[in-house]
Amino acid sequence: MTETDRVSLNNVTHVRGNGSNNKAFELGDDFISVTGNNKRQAENTRKGLSSYLSLVSKRITATEDYIKGHSQAFKLFVLGILGAGYVAYFIAACVLDFQRAIALVVLTSLAIAAKLYELLKEHRGESISQCFRPAVTFLKSNFKWVFILAAVALLVLWLVLDTSRRPEQLISFGGVWMFVVLVFLLSAHRTAVTWRPVFWGLGMQFCIGLFIIRTEPGLIAFEWLGKQVQTFLEYTQAGSGFVFGNLINDIFAFQALPIVVFFSSVMSILYYLGIMQWLILKISWCMQITMGTSPTETLSVAGNIFVGQTEAPLLIRPYLKNMTKSEIHAVMTGGFATIAGSVMGAFISFGIDASSLISASVMAAPCALAISKLSYPETEESPFKDENNIKVAAGDEQNILEAASSGASASIGLVANIAANLIAFLAILEFINASLSWFGGMVGYPSITFQVRSEIITTYALCGFANLSSLGIMIGGLSSICPSRRGDISSMVLRAMITATCVSLINACIAGILYVPLTDCVELFKTSVAFNATDANIGTCCKDLFQKTVNNGTVYFEGPWSAVANATLYFSKCCQCCGLSDVAVCN
Q1: I need a labelling partner for 78 at 20 to 30 A (CA). Which of 12, 169, 398, 585 fits?
Q2: CA distances (Å), 209 to each of 146, 226, 271, 312, 513, in order?
Q3: CA-CA distance, 486 to 76, in Å (whole number)?
Q4: Could you tell me the pTM of the whole model?
């Protein structure tokens, strides 16, 4: 016998004479039996694993169904934990250093106020509206002209009292009405002008400016906001420094223009999260109920406070094709009359006062709507009268990282546009200065140049995007959003740009009426031979000096007065005049 597959055929024995027994065959039968058992065991194992996984899956599904069925309870539980954690954090921050926590207190208060307003409007809004409806109807029918005459009388009285010391402010007041009359004369439909949005818009602009420029809370609030914006923009240096290295310290383009990229990316993130839409809706509501403008145009103009002239119309993209010509004109005017947040960041990096830029952009929004309705009045019936039918559009990004990336990418063209305009306009300005100097030199005045002296007023005048290069941006941007209205956009864009220029100039005039330049007290004291009690500036400066004076047996001064050489002499003269001798620090 031969050996096959390691099984030898040997020791053959006969059994009952009917055949032979061979152990090799018995070994093969055992091998086949073991293999079959292994397969059955593997099959049983697979079945057991499958049933186990099926059981686990059923339990997971049951858990998911339970969580979905009690999602509200879980949501409240999680929100409760987060709320309790924030309250503990808020209390700890205030206890440790309340002065440092003021910003946190302000933001928390604003968030609570906004939430309470939404809850009140949702649950009691209709009943509150019904309570005030008879009063509103009564005022509209009987006291409309009384209210108008009272507002005009108060304005005249305020102008008389306020300009009695600074009559030059009346020049700015005259400038406002000159531009209003000019826009009215150039209006597309003078007989169709509705004066409600015009006067309400100018009134809102004046009130906002009065709060920001003249009141201490408004001034402090916007100065604080400006400082926060400046601090926020300084984070740009981390990215631009990594890319450009030490060039950011020496070259303007690498120092200022990356701010546009950073700000654009941040705005895109806020837009993706819905924060900008919420804020814009609140501002647009205030303008809409007072000025009577449609929700679509108001929403776009309010958006221009924060985003650019091509981004703001995206908020109302689904409605552009059905908007009236007057509404489209208002959308374009709002884009030209304000500056985008990213451009604002670049302007701040130039050294322009941040609080003035922010307040100018806020003031320009109601004025843009007002002057737009004067330049191109409504002659059609707007299909968007009910704000409940207006839904704010959101971005197309799928996640926050894509939003940040798309915002940065979208700023590339804007950065190039800013750089090109700076090169062109600074070169033109230098040429004009050289020409004026040459002409002035012919008659003995070589120092004549085209330089602007009033920085604050100029900030308000230039806080807009109404320039020739923006015409192409506006036409291209709006036409790509709504190709069917390309003809209307192209026919009205030049009028909208001129109207927006008037808006910026009116903004500057309002600032000229309200802005009071700070007195240089040290220079005033130096040039004053005798301190006159009738001089209001002397009295103001003396009060400021007293506030910075400490008298605990030895007189010394704090703040900027500590570096003034003759502060003690000025202090002595102040105590002797102006009816201030009874001030505590003088005794």
Answers
A1: 398
A2: 25, 16, 27, 23, 10
A3: 50
A4: 0.65
